[in-house]
Amino acid sequence: MTREIRLNAFDMACVGHIQHGMWTHPRDEASDYTSLDHWVGLARLLERGLFDGLFLADILGVYDVLGGDAGPSLRESVQIPLIDPVSLVPAMAHATTHLGFGVTCNLAYEPPFLFARRMATLDHLTRGRIGWNIVTGYLDSAARAVGLSGQMAHDDRYALGDEYMQVVYKLWEGAWRDDAVIRDRANRMYSDPARVRAVHHHGKQFQLDAIPPWEPSPQRTPVLYQAGSSDRGRVFAAEHAECVFVNGASQANVKRVVADIRARSERRPVKAFVGATVIVAPTEAEARDRLEEYRQHASARGALAHAAASLGVDFDRFGMDEPVDASSSQAVRSNLEAMTASFGPGWTKRHLIDRFVLGSRQLPIVGSPSQVADALMEWVEVADVDGFNLSRTVIPECLEGFIDLVVPVLQDRGVFKTAYTPGTYRHKLFGAGNHLPETHPAAAERWRA
Fold first, then answer.
1. Which of 372, 360, 373 is nearest to 279 (CA)?
2. Would you say 238 and 232 are in contact if contact means Cβ atoms under 8 Å apart?
3. Structural domain of residue 99, as residue ranges?
4. Do the domain assignments include residue 420?
5. In angstroms, how far is CA 43 from the centroid of its own chain?
6. How many domains does the chain have?
7. How far is residue 240's CA from residue 119's CA, in Å, rounded to a whole number?
8. Integer Cα distance of 352 and 342 in angstroms
9. Phi, psi (deg, nearest 5) at residue 94
10. Is the alpha carbon torsion for 139, 144, 148, 150 positive or negative?
11. So what's the pLDDT on residue 339?
């Protein structure tokens, strides 16, 4: 029997996210991204559709690799303008009861203490529905924005990440004992001083001596997502992540990556989400017509600007049929590996542009509700994934169509829930309590009652 499918909406607090050019469609509402009404409406829509979460991407720099400047990204709104996604979460959580929120935060440019406090605050305010997509960054423009000359080398960023995780685990799990908060009005004791201790860390990258002032939140540590699929990224994911996000270049490649991560993290379960774009309509013919309608708005130049930054390659330096040399790139290594796996060695700019069906490298799933359900279930069976991060095309109609047309088919087939399970984000995903399992490295820091 096919496992229960998990669903996240994949979005970003910007106008143009993955499918570049869709903001020009007359029905698209992405330009409302600065409105809380927009985000609250999205959260309520997703909860109506029983989505597990809203996965919010983020970057700190700009895409300025194509042509050597940010002009193409600014012109085509390629993830710019962009606002801080963390600020949106409390409003969406207040308007919903069950929806989880996975927020991307770059650990390379923020002290662990400040970040840990912000996540603990969100875990409190959402009543345990916050997750963290752990990223180490890949944009030189982001490093320059915080006063550095450039980013660290790819594998060095993961080494930094490993130590960062040690520090935040100590802050979230080890400073306050489970029973430290007394709230004894009669004896005027809110917290027992004997059950709160300072965190000490003196490592290569970070120095810390502090008592974290926040009391333990419902999950203590947020649900941990990670999206790196390179060799070093998989080592990091197997050590830390509870959920991994894999880009779906091919089912065979995704299966290989997922199998490797599961083998490395065999002590504990890891849920795998693959990126997907869906265009659905009551009939296949109507879905194909909608695809062609959307294609009229797709931006190949915008997609190329995005790809140039994520691959670390200025495609303007190459001819259409000239093999692309990306050997010196320090950007997203797994994206380069996916390109080679998809197109073979010696791939060219023409290969890439030919794949830009809707303004991104992600080929859409197009069809009737039953055809889309078939495709999703095939991915689960063949690639051994647990669910999908669904990218938006024209918002909100793309999600409304999926919820109204595809979700009932998945429910009828017994592969999607008909109601939420009570509890925290972690409990809903894994059904094993609010906190990280004993097999997770963070558990070694936990101060139990």
1. 372
2. no
3. 6-180+191-299+366-438
4. yes
5. 16
6. 1
7. 16
8. 10
9. -65, -30
10. positive
11. 66
* 393 C-beta neighbours (distance < 10 Å), count: 27
Return the half-sphere exposure (C-beta side, CA atoms, 13 A cut-off) of residue 108.
27
Give the chain's mean pLDDT. 93
Question: Is 25 part of a structural domain of the chain?
Answer: yes
pLDDT for position 410 = 98
pLDDT confidence of residue 5 = 98
CA 190-191-192 angle, 5° bins: 130
What counts of helices (H) and strands (E) characterise the chain? 16, 14
Take residue 142 and report the two structure tokens written for it: 């982001």
Give me the CATH number covering residue 203.
3.20.20.30
Please state, in angstroms and as integers, the Cα–Cα distance from residue 406 to each residue in 85, 226, 363, 373, 399, following that order: 28, 27, 18, 6, 10
How does pLDDT run across 362-410, given as a tens digit for each residue? 899 999 999 999 999 999 999 999 999 999 999 999 999 999 999 999 9
Which one-letter amino acid corresponds to residue 113? Answer: F
Quick: pLDDT tens for 2-61. 689 999 999 999 999 999 999 999 999 999 999 999 999 999 999 999 999 999 999 999
Question: Which of 47, 36, 157 lies closest to 89, judged by CA?
Answer: 36
Residue whose token pair is 């982001």: 142
Q: Does 83 score more than 90 pLDDT?
A: yes
State how far the alpha carbon of 382 is from the alpha carbons of 4, 148, 274, 365, 376, in Å. 15, 43, 12, 16, 10
**Residue 108, in any domain of the structure:** yes
Per residue in 291-329, pLDDT (tens digit) is 999 999 999 999 999 999 888 889 998 888 898 876 655
Question: Is 424 inside a domain boundary?
Answer: yes
Q: Please choose, from the candidates 336, 384, 278, the residue with its C-alpha nearest in 3D space to the C-alpha of residue 10.
A: 278
